[in-house]
């Protein structure tokens, strides 16, 4: 349920940053100069600490998983800086980081909030300061991108482009990696996932047993530190961390934007800290339930509906790349049959192949954003016409955290531990198979993937299950539901808003996962709520983009990016060839930019020659 960044926003960051060396007039008012000292520890260096933590922080400011333990002992480590404070320094350099002058810091929090004098862990935090005057500045806008397992630090860069100038002028934008995730004290287990995406056909218990065995083997690689951390990575503890972050930022009350799983985090925060809420925007509501089985079953229906919407739009549009290939749903069905009968599809990705499970994953991934629909159509057309699985492989990689260098982040394994820390249910292996099989039967198009669910097998019981409640006493909380949302079906947003005593539902008639920052019609109402605490008087809107999802050949966002890079190369810029797969695999384009001397005269001259092709953001 992670929110995927927009390609064009990332390209815009790269282009404007490159312009700063030779075209000062292009520089945003947000650009500041600063050094390159790293401020976030490498995940490999993050460990548990047993230093004492005061109960009241300053206001401003390869072993198998063992049987359940109530108090896992962390290792003893040297002292660290005082908890509850943020010592800001410049972040590891990237194009967008240099453009928006991101700062990074580490917040120390208790491993167990019921034992504030015990072990501590680190929470990695980043921010970009408000661009307005001190009088205009309201405070911090803390953001969670979803997942669970999504990195708030990584998401902050593209969101700096997607949020309005009204917001960025008045708020410091703050992202953080929740406990267990990325640059914070992280879940550390084997994360190699290539060819491991499940595809279990109806009643194939033997295939499911293989998936369960693979899951157990992967969990057996988790470090001892992960074993100690795992019981404490649930949403309740992340919400408690977020309240310490609020205090360390110097905010009397929290202003928060949560996408997807971030809505669960926001609702939990409101339940635990209702008096500390200023404004919460919960976009893409997650059903107020701790049952992973229930969520899997209903989410499958959301993806089915989104796929049918995509197929209907493609079949009706002459610009859809599948035109002439056949009805879209039949093309997908035939591709799956082909892979099952004849083996995985080859790709152009260093010998990798596309399995049936990865095919379903690639389709599901592209449904997260209507901007990805043209890429999905192209990927399906290439697979159907020439058994080329390259683009489908790359689309699927985005959902399981594959990095441009071929490694995987820890989002998938972190997601499992976080969900299971929230879910008090533990069932036998036999019952988990029955539940997965039943959930799969509900989905018409993604059942084989869902049937591979192993739930919380081999993961210790939850010691602090999800706090679900009405958040009594909290000020109005806005929940945004998108009618065509695949990952968090619209009905979930309705249920979440109804479960909150002060919940206000805002309905967006649109396709894709979440809306604020990507669907224009919602912006003004939500901006006004965040800035002035004005509750939307009209509580619905329709996407202005309408139903024209497939631009003519050569006019998609991806086509614009590729044409721009081709122009740079043709005009003398020393840069590598860039393919569609390269851009989809690395939307930040950092791997491409690392190979370019942005300040060189040939690049600057090429940039001027290609200025008319700069993608419209």
Note the overall shape: globular
Biggest sheet: strand arrangement: 1-2-3-5-4-6-7-10-11-12
Total DSSP E strands: 12
Largest sheet: 10 strands, mixed
Query: What class do helices, strands and sheet pairing give?
Result: alpha/beta
Q: Detail the poorly predicted runs.
A: 1-7, 20-81
Descriptive overview:
The chain has about 625 residues and is α/β, with parallel strands linked by helices. Among the domains are: about 1-30 and about 555-615, no CATH class; about 30-190 and about 225-250, no CATH class; about 190-220 and about 320-405 and about 425-460, no CATH class. Helix content is about 40%, strand content about 10%. It contains 22 helices and twelve strands. It has a ten-stranded mixed beta sheet with strand order 1-2-3-5-4-6-7-10-11-12, with helices on both faces. Strands 8-9 form a two-stranded antiparallel ribbon. Helix 1 packs across helix 3 (about 150-160), helix 12 packs across helix 13 (about 390-395) and helix 19 (about 555-570) crosses helix 22. The longest helix has 24 residues, at about 290-315. The protein is globular and about 60 Å long. Mean pLDDT is about 85; it is low at about 1-5 and about 20-80.
């Amino acid at each position: 349920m992670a929110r995927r960044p927009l390609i064009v926003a990332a390209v815009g960051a790269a282009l404007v940053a490159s312009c700063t060396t030779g075209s000062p007039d292009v520089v945003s008012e947000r650009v500041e100069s600063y050094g390159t000292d790293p401020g976030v520890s490498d995940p490999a260096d993050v460990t548990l600490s047993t230093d004492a933590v005061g109960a009241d922080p300053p206001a401003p400011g390869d072993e198998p998983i063992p049987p359940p333990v109530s108090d896992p002992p962390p290792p003893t480590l040297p002292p660290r800086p005082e908890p509850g404070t943020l010592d800001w320094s410049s972040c590891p350099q990237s194009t967008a980081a240099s453009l928006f002058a991101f700062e990074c810091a580490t917040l120390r929090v208790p491993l167990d909030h019921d034992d504030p004098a015990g072990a501590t862990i680190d929470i990695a935090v980043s921010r970009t300061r408000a661009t307005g005057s001190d009088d205009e500045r309201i405070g911090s806008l803390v953001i969670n991108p979803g997942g669970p397992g999504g990195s708030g630090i990584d998401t902050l860069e593209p969101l700096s482009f997607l949020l309005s100038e009204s917001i960025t002028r008045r708020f410091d934008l703050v992202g953080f990696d929740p406990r267990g995730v990325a640059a914070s004290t992280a879940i550390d287990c084997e994360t190699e996932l290539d060819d491991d995406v499940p595809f279990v056909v109806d009643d194939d218990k033997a295939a499911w047993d293989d998936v369960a065995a693979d899951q157990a083997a992967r969990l057996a690689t988790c470090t001892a530190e992960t074993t100690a951390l795992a019981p404490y990575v649930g949403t309740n503890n992340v919400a408690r961390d977020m309240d310490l972050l609020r205090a360390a930022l110097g905010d009397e009350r929290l202003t928060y934007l949560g996408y997807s799983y971030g809505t669960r985090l926001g609702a939990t925060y409101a339940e635990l800290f209702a008096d500390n809420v200023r404004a919460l925007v919960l976009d893409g509501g997650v059903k107020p339930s701790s049952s992973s089985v229930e969520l899997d079953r209903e989410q499958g229906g959301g993806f089915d509906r989104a796929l049918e919407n995509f197929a209907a739009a493609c079949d009706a549009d002459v610009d859809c790349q599948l035109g002439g290939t056949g009805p879209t749903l039949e093309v997908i069905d035939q591709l799956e049959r082909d892979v099952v009968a004849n083996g995985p599809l080859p790709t152009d990705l260093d010998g990798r192949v596309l399995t049936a499970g990865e095919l379903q994953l690639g389709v599901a991934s592209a449904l997260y954003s209507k901007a990805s629909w043209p890429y999905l159509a192209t990927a399906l057309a290439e697979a159907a016409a020439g058994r080329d699985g390259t683009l489908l492989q790359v689309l699927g990689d985005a959902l399981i955290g594959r990095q441009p260098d071929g490694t995987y982040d820890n989002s998938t394994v972190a997601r499992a531990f976080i969900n299971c820390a929230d879910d008090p249910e533990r069932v036998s292996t036999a019952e988990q198979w029955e539940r997965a099989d039943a959930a799969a039967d509900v989905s018409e198009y993604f059942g084989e993937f869902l049937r591979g669910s192993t739930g919380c097998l081999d993961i210790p019981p939850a010691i602090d299950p999800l706090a679900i409640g009405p958040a009594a006493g909290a000020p109005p909380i806005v929940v945004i539901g998108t009618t065509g949302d695949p990952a968090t079906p619209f009905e979930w947003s309705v249920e979440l808003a109804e479960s909150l005593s002060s919940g206000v539902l805002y309905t967006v008639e649109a396709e894709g996962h979440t809306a604020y920052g990507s669907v224009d019609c919602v912006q003004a109402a939500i901006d006004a709520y965040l800035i002035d605490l004005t509750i939307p008087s009209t509580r619905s809107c329709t996407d202005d983009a309408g139903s024209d999802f497939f631009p003519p050949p050569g006019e998609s966002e991806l086509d614009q990016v590729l044409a721009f890079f081709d122009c740079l190369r043709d005009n003398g810029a020393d840069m590598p060839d860039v393919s569609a797969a390269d851009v989809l695999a690395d939307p930040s384009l950092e791997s491409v930019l690392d190979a370019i001397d942005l300040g060189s005269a040939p690049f600057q001259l090429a940039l001027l020659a290609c200025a008319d092709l700069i993608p419209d953001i």
